[in-house]
Specification:
Elements: H1 6-9, E1 64-65, H2 66-74, E2 83-86, E3 94-95, E4 99-100, E5 110-111, E6 115-118, E7 124-130, E8 144-148, E9 160-163, E10 167-170, E11 178-182, E12 199-200, E13 211-213, H3 221-229, E14 234-238, E15 242-248, E16 252-253, E17 263-264, H4 267-277, E18 281-288, H5 292-301, E19 306-310, H6 321-327, E20 331-335, E21 337-340, E22 346-349, E23 355-359, H7 363-382, E24 390-394, E25 405-413, H8 426-430, E26 435-438, H9 448-451, E27 455-459, E28 471-476
Parallel strand pairs: 1-21, 7-8, 15-18, 15-19, 16-17, 19-23, 21-25, 24-26
Antiparallel strand pairs: 2-14, 3-14, 4-13, 5-12, 6-8, 6-9, 7-11, 10-11, 20-22, 22-23, 24-28, 25-26, 25-27, 27-28
Helix pairs in contact: 2-7, 5-6
Length: about 475
């Protein structure tokens, strides 16, 4: 069901609300479950634009293979236009250009310790004091020392810093100046510290123009501090994309326990913080009734960089997402994914060029869609690098699906966390191997398993179970790892 010109559809379009169209390989009835009881289905073959080279191959028995769907999602958007922001406003964004030093760091020779700046070997005559923020224009003559604080600029002529605990001040009767001596208990040389000791030389950390952080680096608190220390007041960043979220379903409740055939909305509370963890700022989060015109107006009126819908992606009597996208002349890039749970998910490009991700209504199925399509797409829009694949060994057998990838909630452990597992070798444990233990409650409509999970294990399709010891890819779901 790719994008088709209005002229090609003019003869078949009738006024009134769009109705769901059943595919020949799908079942229409809804499936019961928490949040949105829409059944997962095997989407039928979409009508495609003839000769379109960019369209992924269609797989009639379950949708696009899971790895291919993620690659399509990664390439479905473009990095947003960079902007320049004051330092504090850039937190959480991604550098669009390398961070370079505006000056040397440190900008002058500084003391790394509280103590005395000394010139030459001791003992030394003592005179004056230098604090951080002060600068002495007078050179320090050989045989002289001055008290100095950490971070203060060294006076010209200073050769080293004697730490406070390594020196002793002697006041001699009748002499106007005191003498500084080395305490032998704290020194390897009674003549004093070696040249350069406890001095941070100018440019030790960087020189003006040095690249400090590469483009694509996520701006965190330490990056802000480094930029400030290096003399920067602003940063050029890729702004985080904004997403409108439309939660579909007449059966959803906003408060209280499920009742009268209706269930609580689980995805409205779940999606915004998860999107933020992916670098996406939720804009409007709206509950929509199961009505094609309402959905069409919401999608058509959105100005967000990304639209995420939940529910309505199957082929039931009120599953309107695909018909509405067709009516809006959207191009379907992913029309179903060979993954369990979550295979009715979809990815479309609106005529404006903005992407829309349609997630299934069942909660765990929606999370799988989020990890499959939204995560790689969001990283592209925000200019974030795609993470390197991570792997773990299964601590238990997992049943594989014959044709579809399975995403299974797992907890992660090291070898010593698994006292009931005796056939893993200590050698594997010593290498820091992570072990993934499947969790219960992994059905499409369930959130109990993933609420306790550290990651989702990616179990490839096959005729046999994925056995213990098998290495599988894992998708971390902790906020800091997304």
């Amino acid at each position: 069901m790719g994008r088709r010109g209005r002229a090609a559809r003019e003869g078949r379009r009738r006024p009134g609300p769009v109705t769901a169209r059943a595919h020949p390989t799908t079942a229409g009835p809804r499936e019961t479950g928490a949040h949105a009881p829409r059944g997962e289905h095997t989407p039928g073959p979409p009508a495609r634009r003839p000769g379109s080279p960019a369209e992924p191959p269609y797989h009639p028995h379950g949708g696009l293979p899971w790895p291919d769907a993620r690659r399509v999602a990664q390439g479905a958007g473009r990095r947003l236009t960079p902007i320049t922001l004051p330092l504090r406003a850039a937190i959480g964004q991604v550098l669009a250009a390398p961070l370079t030093a505006a000056g040397d760091l440190p900008p002058f020779d500084t003391s790394a310790m509280d103590g005395w700046a000394v010139a030459g070997p001791g003992p030394w005559r003592l005179s004056g004091q230098l604090l951080a923020g002060q600068r002495s224009a007078e050179p320090l003559a050989e045989g002289w020392a001055t008290r100095i604080a950490t971070g203060a600029a060294l006076p010209p002529g200073a050769t080293a810093v004697l730490r406070r605990e390594g020196g002793h001040v002697e006041h001699r009767s009748g002499q106007p100046t005191a003498w500084l001596h080395v305490l032998t208990a704290h020194a390897t040389d009674p003549a004093g510290p070696a040249p350069g000791q406890d001095i941070r030389p100018r440019g030790q950390e960087c020189r003006v123009g040095d690249e400090l952080l590469a483009a694509g680096t996520l701006v965190g608190p330490a990056a802000l501090g480094l930029a400030a220390a290096a003399g920067r007041d602003e940063l050029t960043v890729v702004p985080g994309p904004r997403a409108d979220v439309f939660v579909l379903g007449d059966e959803l409740l906003d408060a209280g326990p499920p009742r009268d055939g209706r269930v609580r909305d689980a995805l409205g509370p779940l999606l915004p913080p998860w999107l933020r963890a992916l670098g996406v700022e939720p804009g409007e989060v709206r509950r929509l009734e199961d009505d094609a015109d309402t959905l069409r107006q919401a999608v058509g009126g959105s100005t967000a960089d990304l639209i995420v819908t939940t529910g309505g992606t199957a082929a039931g009597p009120v599953d309107f997402v695909r018909p509405v996208l067709d009516d809006l002349d959207a191009e379907l890039l992913v029309d179903g994914v060979a993954v369990r749970p979550g295979h009715p998910m979809l990815l479309a490009r609106l005529p404006s060029g903005r992407p829309l991700v349609g997630l299934p209504g069942n909660p765990l199925a929606a999370v799988c869609g989020l990890l499959t399509l939204v995560a790689p797409l969001a990283r592209t829009l925000a200019g974030r690098p795609q993470p390197a694949p991570r792997h773990a060994r299964l601590a238990e057998d997992v049943r594989a699906h014959a044709t579809d990838t399975r995403l299974v909630p797992v907890s992660l452990h090291d070898l010593h966390d698994l006292p009931d597992v005796h056939d893993f070798s200590e050698k594997e444990g010593e290498r820091g191997t992570a072990f993934a233990r499947p969790l219960r409650f992994g059905g499409p409509a369930m959130l109990r398993g993933i609420a306790c999970a550290d990651a989702m294990a990616v179990v490839p399709p096959g005729d046999s179970a994925a056995t213990r010891h098998t290495q599988v890819e894992i998708l971390p779901i902790a906020t800091g790892a997304l």
